[in-house]
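Regression test case RT-17, inverse folding.

Input:
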């Protein structure tokens, strides 16, 4: 009997690189939990007093209960969805804008390139925490603040990477040939440059996603991100830190899930980099 194609792919990946296979499996499990969580028989994340307050993990409550007697497992699942969704939305928008700005700066060079490069340096040196405090003071804490801070931190990363790759492509024979043939700037950027920098953008996207998850969790932990009754992994850690001395399982479960999420994204990013840059492939385990 022939195994389904996804299982064959995973089996081949497991034989080649078990660390990457572990990261892919962990990421898929977390994503499925985040998407299907409301439909799984794990309990209601908002229902109060379903059990004793701050009870330890048990068969009925695998992650225990919080200070309001709510099952902590469905709240962690909601936190997974919020953390992934906010980070992915912010990084996706930032990747699109940063790629466009970086390509334009690298292709035109001159004053435009200098302005973009210096602006990226300024944003790169701006502390994420300070940006979060300023945005929260202006618009209030919440999802908008988290998305804005992630964008401020990730934008210069994309701009600098795309700009450097575009600078290396500008002046190559196929670019000069397109210019001589009368191709428009839009066509050169979209048809000749973008496909050649797509690999660098994809790799940068995975690393920016892990950075975005760390930033979102840190802001929510400080009370500047997701606000109750909604939950993210960072806000759950903040909630659990109050009861760390006599209910450590709350911080342990949410902290382990957050660590697994960031680790899995980084492992997938390493696999993408190795696939696009085979000469720099890491030693397989």
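Golden output:
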């Amino acid at each position: 009997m022939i195994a389904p194609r996804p299982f064959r792919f995973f089996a081949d990946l497991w034989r080649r690189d078990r660390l990457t296979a572990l990261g892919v499996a962990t990421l898929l499990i977390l994503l499925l939990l985040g998407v299907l969580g409301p439909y799984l028989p794990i309990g209601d994340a908002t229902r109060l007093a379903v059990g004793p307050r701050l009870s330890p993990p048990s068969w009925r409550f695998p992650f225990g209960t919080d200070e309001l007697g709510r099952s902590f497992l469905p709240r962690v699942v909601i936190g997974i969805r919020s953390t992934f969704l906010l980070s992915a939305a912010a990084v996706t928008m930032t990747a699109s804008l940063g790629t466009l700005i970086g390509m334009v700066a690298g292709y035109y060079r001159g004053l435009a390139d200098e302005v973009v490069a210096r602006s990226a340096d300024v944003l790169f040196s701006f502390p994420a925490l300070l940006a979060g405090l300023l945005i929260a003071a202006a618009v209030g804490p919440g999802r908008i603040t988290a998305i804005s801070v992630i964008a401020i931190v990730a934008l210069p990363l994309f701009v600098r990477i795309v700009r450097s790759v575009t600078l290396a492509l500008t002046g190559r024979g196929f670019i000069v040939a397109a210019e001589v043939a009368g191709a428009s700037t839009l066509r050169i950027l979209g048809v000749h440059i973008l496909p050649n920098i797509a690999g660098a953008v994809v790799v940068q996207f995975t690393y920016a996603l892990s950075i975005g998850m760390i930033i979102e969790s840190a802001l929510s932990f400080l009370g500047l991100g997701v606000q109750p009754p909604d939950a993210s992994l960072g806000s759950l850690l903040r909630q659990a830190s109050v009861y760390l001395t006599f209910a450590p399982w709350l911080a342990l479960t949410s902290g382990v899930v957050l660590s697994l999420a960031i680790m899995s994204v980084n492992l997938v990013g390493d696999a993408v980099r190795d696939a696009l840059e085979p000469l720099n492939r890491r030693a397989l385990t």
